[in-house]
Amino acid sequence: MNVHTYEKIWLVASLFLIVGFIATVVYGAAGAGIAMVDASGGTVDSTSLSENERFGEPGVERVGDGEYEVTVVARQFMYQPDPIRVPADSRVTFYVTSADVIHGFQVVGTNVNTMVIPGQVAKITVDFDEPAEYGIICNEYCGQGHHDMEGKLVVVPEDEYGGDDA
After folding, report:
1. pLDDT tens digits, residue range 88-146?
2. Are strands 60-64 and 67-75 parallel, antiparallel or unpaired?
3. Which of 30, 33, 34, 25 lies closest to 114 in space, CA to CA?
4. CA–CA gap between residue 74 and residue 97 (Å, rounded)
5. What is d(CA 154, CA 68) in angstroms, rounded to the nearest whole number?
6. What distance in Å separates the CA atoms of residue 34 and residue 30, rounded to the nearest whole number?
7. CATH code, residues 39-160
8. Which one of 3, 92, 102, 157 is least enclosed by Cβ atoms within 10 Å?
């Protein structure tokens, strides 16, 4: 059997493309350091969040020098608290859960982006170095008012930050 030279070239080129696509998928899934939503943030009873120690009163809490924890509850069609205020030059860990359906929690312009599942607590840590204002959006369809579900994160200068509450 004789295979034409052009056919050999196309077969080799196709093989390289297939290997390249597989390598890209493997790198995107494992090599880029992107973690999937897991149970590292813990679990919670989404039907009784108001009675939960952490999620009963969502807000900002200082936990160390330049370290803050922000507890957020997503519900149709809002985030609590809103707006969220944190100081610049701080490390912020978000603990986010949902009271009703699956939501998204994305701080636009940062790498904070997670799926918010009732009963699971998503834990995300990020450093905010400069004062800025960020939008928070839901990127998982959650019902008729989904398009109005947004919030705000305000990073203020350290000397203007007045407290641990949102």
Report:
1. 999 999 999 999 999 999 999 998 999 999 989 999 999 999 999 999 999 999 999 99
2. antiparallel
3. 34
4. 6
5. 14
6. 7
7. 2.60.40.420
8. 3
